[in-house]
Amino acid sequence: MKFFIDTANLDQIREAQELGVLDGVTTNPSLMAKEGITGRDNILKHYVDICNIVDGDVSAEVIATDFDGMVKEGEQLAELHDQIVVKIPMIKEGVRAIKYFSDNEIRTNCTLVFSAGQALLAAKAGATYVSPFIGRLDDISTDGLNLIAEIRLIYDNYGFETEILAASIRHTMHVLECAKIGADVMTGPLSSIEGLLKHPLTDIGLEKFLADYKKGN
Ligand code: E4P
After folding, report:
1. CA–CA gap between residue 150 and residue 153 (Å, rounded)
2. Residue 22: which domain range?
3. Which residue's CA is the nearest one to ligand 1's atom 1?
4. Closest Cα to atom 6, ligand 1: which residue?
């Protein structure tokens, strides 16, 4: 399973990279705005800065919602760095754009996916990644993890190569459950990854080992 971090915060990306288990970064316009990154030139520069920190794929989202606009913007994003994956929303023009990029060997991440049907369409169009937003489904009392299981089943039935990128991860249990179901990738906050290392028996055990060592030295 690949671990992506879902942020545009460079310090957090550096911290995750230093842990040695990071495979990529996802961003979106809201995450960029949260870091105060505004204006086209600053946004493009920020994507390059992220690519220079992390060894792996960096999703950069288009703002255009028409086919021609998405193609123009996506090609510009893809030219920034070979780690860039163009993030395209699951709308009709977006499906056309994903197909265009797939035919032209530009990698895509189909975002804002909330149903198995949308995921099927993204795979048919040739998306590199599909991003089902499990946390936002949970927020409206719908089982986000069940969507991951449905997509896994459909993709395995037909051998689709599109990778399931479980997005809108809110906590460590989401990561674990997605791993059990077989999501290819998770993207979430650093805390959802760091939560994996925590166990009270580890802390108690280490404390005891160190105390016993001190007794004999
Ligand atoms: C995915 O690529 C999105 O950026 C993200 O996971 C959305 O998460 P949120 O629901 O926490 O905003």
Report:
1. 5
2. 2-216
3. 167
4. 168
